[in-house]
Known about the structure:
InterPro entries: AAA_dom, DNA_Partitioning_ATPase, P-loop_NTPase. It comes from Leptolyngbya subtilissima DQ-A4. Residues 1-167 form the AAA domain. This protein is an alpha/beta fold. It has a single domain, classed as Rossmann fold (3-Layer(aba) Sandwich), CATH 3.40.50.300. 41% of the residues lie in helices and 18% in strands. The protein has helices spanning 15-28, 43-47, 59-63, 93-100, 103-112, 131-139, 151-169, 194-207, 220-228, 242-253, and strands at residues 2-6, 33-38, 74-75, 81-84, 120-125, 142-148, 176-185, 187-188, 191-192, 216-217.
Amino acid sequence: MKICSAISLSGGQGKTTTVFFTALLLAQQGKKVLAVDADPQANLTFYLGHEVQPDEPSLFEVLTKQVEVEDGVYGTQYENLFVMPADRGLFKVSDFLSSSGAGAFILKQRLRKIHDMFDVVLIDVQPSRSQICLSAVGASDHVLIPVEANVKGVNSLVDTLDFLNEQAELEAFTGSVLGIIPFRDRWVGNTQTLEGRQNIAAMKEFAGEAPILASIRESEKFKNAIRQGKLLSELDQPDLQYPFEQIVEALTHE
Length: 254
Ligand SMILES: Nc1ncnc2c1ncn2[C@@H]1O[C@H](COP(=O)(O)OP(=O)(O)O)[C@@H](O)[C@H]1O
Ligand SMILES: [Mg+2]
């Protein structure tokens, strides 16, 4: 079982989009996938068509050890794809994690128990230096860093790489950066805009060893696909799906 988090320390950087399409694609290819929603905004939970009921355990109960980890796993409408959902109650988990003193290791420990049930665990992570984020980073073999192809995105990349380096020095992050994914890269016809090109060049300067993966192009088609719960290839847009195919390739060949 491989654990991969999508991390970026600002909102609107493409984390949920990346996890959603990568999870659907992996599942369609026959991999057993668990999508973990580690963002109290709970967009991933919503995209996967799950609604947390008051009496049903979610990631919160799993992290606070009120239930066994498998009790927080639910099927979805997709074959091979399961979700560990979140709701806004997840905001409260930080107190528990920080007072436990081992917050960075709790998710890792908890997921160990379902090691044989899944091929890949994808975690959509809250965009802040929170205990939830520490816990996801601590559990990860790999991280993906989606960032908008603009100045805000480059700043988010710098913050995120700093954070990961700090965690690596503390030996709380022992994984690798699978890649940086430029998000909402604007093209006009077959030409990338100057803004996109310049910002991706800036990302390369900060990336160090981390590869810059194929960019996710700016397009309403992604939102349509999410709304319909479908892959872009199923909506006759196979070219737009390439970034997720590249991630699947990297994840399954690592
Ligand atoms: N290719 C795209 N082009 C433009 N907007 C997109 C694209 N893909 C997703 N979006 C929209 O961009 C917003 C931010 O993406 P999201 O994945 O939710 O970011 P994050 O999870 O990092 O906050 C969402 O409203 C999403 O629907
Ligand atoms: Mg999100």
